[in-house]
Design brief:
It is built from five helices and no strands. It has about 100 residues and is mainly α.
Length: about 100
Amino acid sequence: MPKKTSKNNDLLNSVKRTTSPKIYSVLVELMNNDREDLAEIVLKVDYLLQYTSNCINHKDFEEARESIKRAEDRIKLLKRENINIDYLQYLYDGIKKKCK
């Protein structure tokens, strides 16, 4: 079976331009290991972290706390599956410090 890339996979093609290279490499690894379910969770965490950062910038700290909690739950799920999410954890830690 050939490796999945953005040229032969719709999910990877749709997120290649919008995600960071570090997140994209995790997604490619998961897709090639037939773990599309976990790849979608990684995308959700990435989106939630971006949304939380936007909430903080707009001073909506209540919504930021709610979304950071949802991201934390999904990060725990990914850790239980032994997925390399060091970059997501780094982003999470930085955003969590800003959330009052």
